[in-house]
Amino acid sequence: MKIIIINYGAGNIQSIKFAIERLGYTAVLSDNVEEIQTADKVIFPGVGEASSAMKKLKESGLDTLIPQLKQPVLGICLGMQLMCNSTEEGNTEGLGIFNVDVVKFNTSVKVPQIGWNQIRDFKSEIFNNIKVDSYIYLVHSFYAPICEYTASVTDYGINYSSALQKNNFYGTQFHPEKSSDVGEQILENFLKL
Amino acid sequence: MLTKRIVPCLDIKNGRTVKGVNFVDLRDAGDPVELAAIYAKTGADELVFLDISATEERRKTLANLVRNVAEKVNIPFTVGGGISSVEDVDVLLQNGADKVSVNSSAVKRPELINELSAKFGSQCITVAIDAKQINGQWIVHLVGGKVPTELNLFDWAKEVESRGAGEILFTSMDNDGTKDGFANKALARLSTELNIPIIASGGAGNMQHFVDTFKEGKSDAALAASVFHFKEIGIPELKEKLKQEGIAVRI
User: Fold this and answer.
1) What is the pLDDT of residues B143-198, one digit of tens each?
2) Which domains does chain A have, with CATH numbers?
3) ipTM over the 0.90 cut-off
4) pLDDT at position A78, please?
C-alpha cells in the first residue's frame, strides 16, 4: 500500500510518519501532484497558521489537486480545517470539500483548547472499535461547527465537529498520531479502508 | 470534557535526563527516550523536554533527541531551552516536536512571540516564565532563576498572551524543589486574568499538591520532574486520586 503524506512545509509531519511506521506501514512525504495521485491513501497534515498554509498549497497546485482526489484522504487538525469552506483564522478561503465554515472558540473557554478531550456520536468507519467517550489529543483555537458531515462530536463549551467525513474525505480535528492507543486505532482504521 | 493534564518534565543535558533541586545539584535520572516511552505507557498526558546544555553541538543533539522521541512516543511533547529564533523552532517542529517553549529569548526580544505565532500558530508556542517573590511582588527571572528582570509576572503574562502565546508554563522559583506544593495563589490569578491554558510548575511533593493546584490554583496542567523520575508518585495512582476528588482526568 502506498501512503503519501502531503508535504507542504506545514509543521510537524514527522510524527504522523512515525505513527504510521509504528503500525507497521511505511509512508512517503511528497508535494508532487502526479505522485500524490498514485497513492492508495493520502494524509493531509497541518500544524500552523491557516492563511500561510493555504498560500503554500496554492504555490504548489495542491489546492486544486486535493479536492479532486478519489482515494481516501485524511486531513488532520489544520488539514481538516483547510478542507472546509473557510476559516476565520487569517480570513482564509479553504478547499471547500466540507460545506462548513471554521470559526474561533469564544472566550467563555480558554483558547486554544490544549489537551485530552472525548469523542462521541460516531458516524464514520474510522471509529470502528473505538469506545464512546474515548480520549483524544487536541490543540486548536478554531473549530468546525456541527454540520451534515460531522463524524464525531466533542464538547468544549459547545458541541462541535471533532471529525468530519464526506465520501472519500475524512478529517480529524484531533491528532490521531498523538492520541495514544486510541489514536493509533483510528489511524489504522483509516489505513485499512 | 477537557481533562487536566499531568506533565512529567525531563531536564536534558547533553542528551541525558537531569533534575536539580532549586536548579543546582544535578542528578542523573536516565535515558530520555526510554523514560518518555515509559511515561507515555503509564498515563502521562504530555511531556516537556527542557534542554539545559550549553555546548556547540546542542542544537544538533536536541534535534536528534526530538526525532528519537517522536519515533517512539505516541503522546504530545514540548521542547524548550535556548530557543531564540524562527529557525530554531522550525527545526524542532520538523523533527517531530508538537510545541516549543521560549523563555529568556522572549523576555529579551518580545517580538519573537509574535513572529513564532504568526509563522507556526499560537497553539504550538508555549511561553515559560520563571518568577519569584521579591518584597511581595512576583518578579520574572532569567537564566534558571538567577537573574531578576524588571518585569512583573502578571504584566508579562498578559503581554505574552497578547503577543500570541498559546499557553504559559509558570514556574515558581520560591516553590521549585521544595516539595511543599505549587504556587496556587499566583496560578489562580494567572488563570483568572488570562484566557490561555496555564501549566503549574515547581513544588510538587505529593498527590494532594496536584489536587490543590487543579482546584485552588485553577491550573490546566501540572508539571513535575523528580517526584515522577524517582517514582515517589506513580501517574496511575495520581490520576485515580484526582478522579476520586472529582477532577476530570484521562484514565
Assistant:
1) 777 889 999 999 999 999 999 999 999 999 999 989 999 999 999 999 999 999 99
2) 3-191 (3.40.50.880)
3) yes
4) 93
Q: Options 3.40.50.150, 3.40.50.2000, 2.60.120.10, 3.20.20.70; which CATH number does B5-244 get?
A: 3.20.20.70
Phi, psi of B49 (to 5 degrees): -110, 120
Q: Quick check: is B155 catalytic? A: no
pLDDT of A47-65, one tens digit each?
677 888 899 999 999 999 9
Boundaries of every domain in chain B = 5-244
Taking alpha carbons only, the member of A108, A151, A147, A146 closest to residue A128 is A151
**Largest pairwise CA distance in chain A:** 45
Alpha carbon of B135: minimum distance to chain A alpha carbons (Å): 31
Does residue B118 belong to the interface with chain A, where contact is any CB pair within 8 Å? yes
What's the rounded Cα separation, in Å, for the pair B251 and B247?
11
Which amino acid is located at A78 in the chain?
L
Distance CA A13, CA A7 (A): 8
Per-residue pLDDT, B119: 86
Q: Chain A: residue nearest B93 by CA? A: A12
A and B: number of Cβ contacts within 8 A: 114
pLDDT averaged over every residue in chain B:
91
